[in-house]
């Protein structure tokens, strides 16, 4: 496969690959997926180091884990899924479901997970017999391209269609838009900045984009506080906070706040003073654009403090900003993909939930919310009040949102955010979302329809209540 | 039901129960009349309210138009009611504390 930006040529090759792909059996597809997974897994360390070297974001050790999740865990999640031909048959209802591939997929991948997202999107595309075109982030062209190349070589060895995986070099905005709107493209899987995701949605091609997150983590008074703090640290410091499902704020009930703060400090949290918050805001948030500053994404807490001119103890892992409000006046209440977290104390559970609602609606609707609690009623109350596709409980939310490790959600690097996150689904996107399901509907007479005298529909004297009763009589 | 607490500075209307359409219709006229009479800032206290109907949102939109948005605020909203204000987008136009 060659790097090219001849958009028509790229799509033409993908279309040809799709035609060949459609003939493959489940066994053949599963073999391809296994070989590609294995190749990606065996290169997990090399690709992780390459990613950090090129992007200067995150920690290579954590990127290894991301690559493991994007291969081994994804494989475990999809390996037994039926994605070819007849996938279900219900004799009672007479419905037979047939899985058909959707066709060429255009995948936009981010700088924050430049190898793992490529591995993930390739595996779910291959499992559903769809060719995929990868468009890496411009700051991750080499590592994302190398990942795609490793996958492609493994796929070809397993007799996959030629050009079933293509990856682009540096593309212009016009080329990207041309590809997104190409008539022979079937779906865009967009993970990236807001403008790119919006462009995908407005291209006219069906698209699944990842919305922004702004994950509140509520520590309710029944929570196991040391455990809760430990879990949040596991999540928020993972890969220096680059996961969109990571906690962006902690909201703690007043009665357990003191203990929470003590636990946080003992694990390397540094609580910023109001003056220091102002300094960190300046370098962490771009007020003009209303988004986090790209320069601090995935950087260690100590480095961010140094750039901001804040003195922190050696070994500081997390910068904590105690805030008393949410919104534009409080930039650190928004999504910051770095080891910076907002902190709120609330007098009771209802007040804490109200703060979570404000945070949730301040740029994070549909994504993820987190609660630490041992009170099932409060967990359910909280979940129903959040607008989130996934509400993780007593779990590090970065890993919990992705699924597979701490819960039984589908493992995914594309987290659906529902309609309020501009998505068509709140699911964790997986191979089954990349299928057209055809349904054979065998004749199964509706007994009531057959026996009912439909002439009665034309009698104006008979209203809904009368006819509804008669329709269902003795049924 | 509504309890009125009038001081020299403001009128606090404390609501309780379920503010469904029938309740809102029942109290709307009386409430608006009272607000016009006092000519003071108005505070809606929703501490005891778990449900609001469209009729209540209409009242919340009507009042700032009549007395000015700076003179109208809503306090003590429960999480359920807060979510309704958020989803409806009314939180952008109302002073909810």
Question: Can you characterise this structure?
Answer:
- The complex is a heterodimer of chains A (475) and B (97).
- With 475 residues, chain A is α/β, with parallel strands linked by helices.
- Chain A contains 17 helices and 17 strands.
- Chain A has three domains: 212 residues, Aldehyde Dehydrogenase, Chain A, domain 1; 193 residues, 3-Layer(aba) Sandwich (Aldehyde Dehydrogenase, Chain A, domain 2), CATH 3.40.309.10; 29 residues, no CATH class.
- In chain A, the strands form four sheets. Chain A has a seven-stranded parallel β-sheet, sandwiched between helices.
- In chain A, a hairpin with a 4-residue loop joins β11 and β12.
- In chain A, α3 packs antiparallel against α6.
- With 97 residues, chain B is of the alpha/beta class.
- Chain B has a single domain, classed as Transcription Regulator spoIIAA (2-Layer Sandwich).
- Helix content of chain B is 43%, strand content 30%.
- Chain B is globular and about 35 Å long.
- The model of chain B has no long low-confidence stretch (mean pLDDT 92).
- The chains are: A alpha/beta (475), B alpha/beta (97).
- At the A-B interface, α13 of A face α3 of B.
Number of helices of chain A: 17
So what's the overall shape of chain B? Answer: globular
Which two protein chains have the largest interface (Cβ within 8 Å of the partner's Cβ), and how many residues from each? A-B, 8 and 9 residues
Mean pLDDT across every amino acid position of chain B: 92
Helix percent of chain A reads 40-55%
Structural class of chain B: alpha/beta
Helix content of chain B: 40-55%
Strand line-up across the major sheet of chain A? 10-13-14-9-8-15-16
What is the gyration radius of chain B calculated from CA atoms? 12 Å
- CATH-assigned fold name of the largest domain in chain A: Aldehyde Dehydrogenase, Chain A, domain 1
Strand content of chain B: 25-35%
Element-by-element helix/strand order of chain B: EEHEHEH
Poorly predicted regions of chain B: none
Number of helices of chain B: 3
Overall mean confidence score, pLDDT of chain A: 96
